Amino acid sequence: MVKALKPHSLYPLLHRIRRRCPFRGFSSEPDFTDPGLPNLVRRVCEILSNPRIQWRGSSELKSLCPKLNPYHVVQIIETHYNTDSVLQFFYWISKTHFYKHDMCCYMSLLNRLVRDMNFAPADHVRILMIKACKNEGEIKRVVDFLNEVGRKGLPYSLYSFNSLLIQLGKFNMVTAAQSVYNELLNSGIKPSLLTLNAMINLLCKRGKVREAEVMLAQIYQYEMLPDVFTYTSLILGHCRNRNLDKAFQVFDQMVKKGIDPNAATYTTLINGLCDDGKVDEALCMIEEMVENGIRPTVYTFTVPITALLENGRVDEAISLFASMREKGSQPNVQTYTALISGLAKSSQLEVALGLYHKMVREGLVPTTITYNALINELCEGGKLVSAIKIFDWMVRHGRLAETETYNAMIKGFCLIGNVERAMILYDEMLKVGPAPNVVTYNTLVNGYAKRGYLDNARRLMEVMKENGCKPDQVTYTELVSGYCKGNKLDVASELFQEMMQQGLTPNLINYSALIDGLSKKGKVDDALILFKRMQEIGYRPNIEVYNAVLNGFSKEGRLSEAEKLCSKMAECGLLPNVITYSTLIDGLCKNGGIDLALKIFHEMERRNCLPNLYTYSSLIYGLCQVGRVDDAEIMLEEMVIKKLYPDEVTYTSLIDGLASLGRLDRAFSLLRRMIHAGCKPNYRTYCVLLIGMQKKMAVQQENVHSHPIDEKYVIFETFCSLLVKMSEMGCEPCTDTYYTLIAGLCRDGRSYDADKLVEFMEEKGLSPNEAINCSLLGAYCKNLRVDAALDILNLLTVRGFKPPLSIYAATVSALCKRERIEEAEVVFEAMLEKQWNGDEIVWTVLIDGLLKKGKPEVCSKLLHVMNSKNVPISKQTYLMLAREMSKANKLVDENRVDEELQVLGDQTPG
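The chain above was modelled as a monomer; its predicted structure follows.
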């Protein structure tokens, strides 16, 4: 019996194992500080060595084994004196549900078996090791190790060669497999039919049919005959090359030779037909195989179900799914996933969710692909709450989400404007994986741009570069479009130039984005220069680019130039579409050319170009502008007959027209219709009614105004009258109504009137919600009413609501302006207790909220707070902060600034 290992003697052994094992990244590092680690290994070895007990039945061993990890097992393999006991223990523990060998375990055991010249079990362990490989990188390292073992006296057997070829086939490693096959031939081992079939299958999976036919010839050379697997592989190769005629020739050939096709043969042909768009022929083939007594497998149905869904044949896909059990096949996870994904994409999310719950009830474990499909479509369909539940379930149950899953969730949050929550998910990706990719960054850039947070969008692109992810044309398109919409055309043009300097050739979408932005902002001549330049370098403008320039001409009333451009477009073979016509109509309506707009409208109808909601909205606006409200109402009824449902813009245009003419009863009647139709009035809708009501009151009181009445001059009493009138006509104001009005008042800086409206609301038995409170808080900060702002912030915190980062930034900034620095610090610290992305805190609170508002001293102080709380920021954000600090007012000693930033820089990751 071997002597018990001393605790200290274990550490050199572990270091030796780690140096020798190239797979240590695949297993957990041992905890060297754990005093129980040596005792655990020693006790297991003692149990295995005890001749008086059967160790397999030892209750103590069973209680110790759940504590073992692969590093412990390696120690047992290398330290226990009895090789046979080690081998049996190796097999025994691998069958437990709580443990799985890593590659170091296989390596240690193989080294020991070869050293002891136990070649038969060594060959078996080698085959298990090959089959345990999970990816291409792992099998490459295994092959290198096995070659080294072979040189020590364990040459490959035919069985191990075949196992290796099959495993290489799983990872489509053609070159490596060919090398192994040549090694087999050079070793003098005669290949079996399994060997040659493995090679043929691998080549055919990659569409290399000619090379596979060379291997087929070798089957005959070795006096063997091809079997059903051989022919099925050749059929697969022809299907991969989209050569169905050749695939069916091979099928006929095998039948003539008396080889019966099996389910895999039929499934391969069925999948090939589906890939070629011949779904009906594929369905006929399923029936044919059933008639021939061949039971379809679950794999037979998956591709046809997917193909039917892609062709919009949802009912047939569901019917085929339902028929699986009748044909003796049980749906598996892949079948459910295909149907769930297809149904979700076909806007049948409820049915897809029902199927998801059904598969879980049946004991099937959804894969990451299932979750990705469901989460992606739920987010696209605006059902973010359901998506979050599934995502959280994945996290709780240890289902590792992939980059695609995170991207879907990030996109969902960005779609509802919650970029801050999306950035928290991005933060998780950086901390624990998976790594964000270019799609992640582009989605977030787009989210920022749509919210108008253009500086943050650009800052994120800089962080993106730092993290080794190169911006592409999509990144620049999102930024260029955002800056154009934000009326920052100089920055948009600068980014366009930067993209070219980065070696990215602008594509049609990039040109279209900048041309559209320039045209919408009245810089049509600049847009035309770009329009000509893209043609000079070989890009042919599409209809979207022409429409963008036409929009610019129409808005400026340059109708003759618009007409010439339309003619040029026709010469290029591009027919005007509904956007082309609507663009011209909109431009004319905004410039008083309603008669010509109506002519163009009738012309588009004659050409079978159906007008859309935007077309009708423009015409209704144009008619109301010239007082032709009755005609506008006729137009509204016409669009409803055509099942084009008016939106808030359409209704507001007509309500404005009626109110302008003093026809308030009719205007309110239309408001009632709008609300009952499920269309939410916006602040502009209410404002046109408020202005109409105030004008009417002024006339009644013979009040003459020296200035035109707009929403900023509407008195508070008129707001109350509006709400009373709405109640009288059967449209009882709800919390949403009050939110729209209060938020509008807050945007106009009328926080005291907003307060009164809250009081009025509470008198009616309604309480302000979080959205109303956030609007008030923002307005209070803008007006430096910091005590009122703090009251609301505390109220929201007590209620468990997490205000957006912009609210915290506004509060901190307002407190600093009032020189209430200590309170600002308290608010900042409270904010840090919640979950945020560190970069976003710096961008929004420190840079935009303080540095750009002349508060570098406070910024420096809050930087210390971040540092003390170990909030990390990226190096790129650290550099941004340094640049802004250096530009800030010189009351701060520059050396001190550098020291403060260096402290943060030192603790930044990466």
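The chain has 50 helices and no strands.
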